[in-house]
Amino acid sequence: MMKRIFLVLAVGALAGSAVTALAQDSNPAIKDSKVTHVGHAAEGANSFTEDQARGRLTKAGYTKISDLRKDDKGHWVGTAVKKGKKSKVALDYKGNVTVLPHNK
Question: What are the tens digits of pLDDT across the range 69-96?
Fold first, then answer.
């Protein structure tokens, strides 16, 4: 009887670990804390808060982040300065940064 209880607990613990691992793998931003610059921001539901988006942009080397808002494609969009140059930037749901043309 005790062996069965132990076996059930062990299987439950392994299943819980697998679910946690799958949940983390489904969100690349959680899986990889490194900030990457990409040519095109990925569209999708963005779960970053404004503070988290500012943090990711800061980690990517941007300062003076302003006018940050979430657009209809799920991107956090705003203006920021990097190496003295002001740019319009976007942060996608994966945590990637894109420098946008000024007319967008």
Answer: 999 999 999 999 999 999 999 999 999 9
Contacts 24+ apart (CB under 8 A), 82-87: none
Whether 96 and 78 map to the same domain: the answer is: yes
DSSP label at residue 45: -
Task: Say how many Å lie between the first and final Cα of the chain, rounded.
Answer: 67
- 12-15 contacts at long range (C-beta below 8 A, 24 or more positions apart): none
pTM exceeds 0.85 for this model: no
Q: How many domains does the chain have?
A: 2
**CA–CA dist 37, 98 (Å, integer):** 6
CA distance 65 to 74: 18
CA distance 9 to 4: 9
CA separation, residue 17 to residues 13, 23, 42 (Å): 6, 10, 29
Give the domain range for residue 63. Answer: 34-104
